[in-house]
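Q&A FORM
Asked by: J.P.
Topic: structure of Acyl-CoA dehydrogenase

PROVIDED:
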Amino acid sequence: MDLSATAEKNLKSRVNHVATVAAAYADEVDRDSRFPKEAVDAMKAERLLGVMISEELGGEGLSISEIAELCSTLGQACASSAMIFAMHQIKTSSLVTHGNDADWHRNFMRRVAAEQLLLGSATTEAGIGGNLRNSICAIDVKDGRCFLEKDATVISYGVESDAILITSRSHKDAASSDQVMTVFLKDQYTIDKTHVWDTLGMRGTCSDGFMFRGEAPAEQILPHPFAEIAAQSMLATAHLLWSSVWYGIALDAFIRAQNFVRAAARKAPGTQPPGLVQLAELSSQLQTVRSNIVGGLRSYEDACMDQDRLSSMGFAVAMNNVKIASSEMILPIINQAMRICGIMGYKNGTPYSLGRHLRDAHSAQLMISNDRILGNTSNMLLVHKQETSLLG
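REPLIED BY: S.T.
REPLY: Here is the structure written out as tokens.
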């Protein structure tokens, strides 16, 4: 076995261990709307929080496709744990892509990898209607230090984060779209809860709202405008890794339906079990979702070789379409899986229970709102020519 195959096998073993831990607590995390501490502790123990960071800085330099596979595996076990892992990696992508030329951020990445720091995100704000590309608050820089106060309507796992990457206007006179992103370490800010996360699904992400107040050295402001960070790393990575989590949820729903049909077949050998044809249809739909994500991952990795393409409207449209298609398709898949499993899928506490899957999957169309994405995409399509070649 060559070194790459050994490393791949080791990575798979590590994430499978985390998934086993996450699955053991998934129902409890959902029921109690609590942070999946056991799963995140396992991620840290298996050193998964630094896998995107380059080997030079102490990480493993995994590709977006490799990390998407980890998200999918975790998504099959516990959607909240998988989403926390995905959101951490999305924040890491901003550092890797846009902080590598700044000494402070390079040293911070070393810390993330060495200490397995969990990164939170504060991009939403009261008064902007969920539009992360606008801010009301502004960072204030004085004598080499920066000060920020933000009414953040959502900071996922904010209490548990070791650092928060937060957006704001670049200065008090800046336009709402003239934004920067700043890293604040846990001992550099306070957060006072303003909203409680009591939701239909994704309950373990603990995405409470907070009033954030922070003070830090100004060098912790990322050296690139947030418009560039959003376009070139954050949004594309979010669409792809979120989609991978949702695929994992749908895949586990399919596996439960498959197990149900197999159990029925064993009870009546020689006959076609109910739900078999519907299961075949689900397999086809699931493959379509997977192909959509894999195609998006390839497009992103190709675009990373060409900065102009990475910032192009065509690329943004393609990434938006990945998210729309993934989030719209998983709900019908899980719903059909529940129909196959019947009352055993509807009930909690059975090997075929799908209530948590269905509730968690409803978040997909709301993170970032599909209506907002479609509105942005429609405007871009006025000036962008749609790709027509099957070969890309």
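FOLLOW-UP: The chain has three domains: 3-118, 120-224, 227-382.
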